[in-house]
Structures are given as structure tokens and as C-alpha cells.
Specification:
By secondary structure, this protein is an alpha/beta fold. The protein is 41% helix and 14% strand. The protein has a four-stranded mixed sheet with strand order 1-2-3-4, covered by helices on one side.
């Protein structure tokens, strides 16, 4: 990319690659997909946030149901709540990564850390009217017991 030039983020999909329903969504100004799933463990958090950030930059983050599991629940919740992904990532790097590396049980605290981050960073960004039903579904798994923790709207 040449210095001083803006990157072209216009998305021009080929209509031959979409179903009639997907084309209808595109004509309504929506992404062709109806749902996005951010699944995976904590080690892929940076990647998941990069994907979420790309959705925001390309304006493909609205009119979609989001599902998230483990660290993916943060990316999904940030998109729905309109939380700042960069701020959330910095919070995770500052508060949780040191624990993961410093303590023997550090990676086993991921579920608790995700809930803390959701409460402290993401949930305050939820609009006063709340989140529409069936838009956000998130869950984490407590380790080492593999107990599921469902945080769903």
C-alpha cells in the first residue's frame, strides 16, 4: 500500500456466489450471512478480535445474530454492545495475560476473566434499550471441571 493513500474498503460481492436470500439481505444493506459464530479458546482472542474489527470497519457488523464461546464470547459481545474492541483487547492484555503466564492455574481462570471483562468493559456499552432478543448468545467453559457457563440474551 502506498503511503498517504487510503485503503479502499468497498465490498463489491459477486452476485453469482449468493443465494436469493443472501442477495435480498445485501440489497437491504445487510451482510449476506444471518449469523456469525466466534468459537475457540483464549489463545485465538487476538485473531477473533481482528475478525470482529474487520466486520466493523467494513460495516458488516449489523443485522446479524452473534454466537460466542470462550474468548469468542468477548468478540461477539463487543460487536453487539458496540464496545471498543481495542479497549477490550488492552484490558485483556493488561489484566489476564499476566495471570495466564504467571500462575500454574492461569489458563484455568479464563472463564472467570471473560465474565469480569464482560461486566467491566463490554456491558456498560449496551444501549439503554438493551439488546434485542435472539441477537447475542455466549457461553464459556470452566476449566478444569468443564462446567458450562451460559451468558445468553
Amino acid at each position: 500500500m502506498t503511503a498517504g493513500k487510503e485503503m479502499n474498503l468497498d465490498w463489491n460481492p459477486n452476485p453469482h456466489h449468493f443465494t436469493a436470500k443472501e442477495l435480498q439481505r445485501l440489497h437491504q444493506g445487510l451482510p449476506p450471512w444471518e449469523s456469525v459464530s466466534f468459537g475457540c479458546g483464549g489463545l485465538l482472542l487476538i485473531y477473533l478480535f481482528g475478525v470482529a474489527k474487520a466486520f466493523q470497519v467494513c460495516k458488516l457488523d449489523h443485522g446479524v445474530r452473534y454466537y460466542g464461546c470462550s474468548a469468542g464470547s468477548l468478540a461477539a459481545a463487543c460487536l453487539v454492545a458496540g464496545a471498543n474492541l481495542d479497549e477490550t483487547m488492552e484490558y485483556c492484555k493488561e489484566h489476564f495475560l499476566p495471570i495466564a503466564y504467571k500462575r500454574v492455574d492461569g489458563l484455568f481462570t479464563l472463564s472467570e476473566n471473560i465474565v469480569i471483562c464482560l461486566k467491566n468493559i463490554v456491558f456498560p456499552h449496551i444501549p439503554k434499550e438493551g439488546i434485542p432478543d435472539n441477537v447475542l448468545h455466549v457461553a464459556t467453559t470452566k476449566l478444569p471441571t468443564f462446567e458450562g457457563v451460559i451468558i445468553s440474551k
